[in-house]
Amino acid sequence: MAKKFNQPLRMCISCRERDTQSNLLRLQCVETQLSLFRGTGRSFYLCKICQQDQKKVLKALMRQCKSGDKDKFSNILKEIITDDRKS
Ligand SMILES: [Zn+2]
Q1: For the sheet containing 33-36, what is the strand order?
Q2: 57 CA → ligand 1 middle, Å
Q3: For the chain, where are the alpha helices, taking DSSP H only?
Q4: Residue 26 alpha carbon to ligand 1 centre in Å
Q5: What is the 53 CA–ligand 1 centroid distance (Å)?
Q6: Which InterPro entries does this entry report, sorted A to Z (predicted)?
Q7: Which residues surround ligand 1, an ion (CB under 5 A)?
């Protein structure tokens, strides 16, 4: 019953809202390339609301990845979100 209160909260990099890990999309950067988290390395989270607002999110993502290729990030983000919804 109280189980969900024990889940650690993670912060969305864009809006800085906190939520449980299962409600957030976990991403990482591999050599300044955006990807889904693969199990190792530094990662960050994106909430479901921010996934709908890519313009806002891209700034935060580029800050995380220290990369400025907005078009590339935008395309990769779209792919990741589409794949995430399929599974
Ligand atoms: Zn957010």
Answers
A1: 33-36, 24-30, 43-47
A2: 8
A3: 48-51, 54-65, 70-86
A4: 12
A5: 9
A6: YlxR-like_sf
A7: 12, 14-15, 47, 50
* Domain range annotation of the chain: 10-86
pLDDT, one tens digit per residue, over 6-15 is 788 999 999 9
Task: Give the model confidence (pLDDT) of 40-80 as tens digits.
Answer: 999 999 999 999 988 889 999 999 999 878 999 999 999 99
Q: How far is the CA of 56 from the centre of ligand 1 (A)?
A: 9
> What's the 70 CA to ligand 1 centre distance in angstroms?
18
Domain 10-86 fold is Hypothetical Cytosolic Protein; Chain: A; (3.30.1230)
- Reported as half-sphere exposure (CB side, CA atoms, 13 A), residue 63 has a value of 8
User: What is this structure's pTM?
Assistant: 0.83
Q: Which DSSP helix (H) or strand (E) runs through 49?
A: helix 48-51
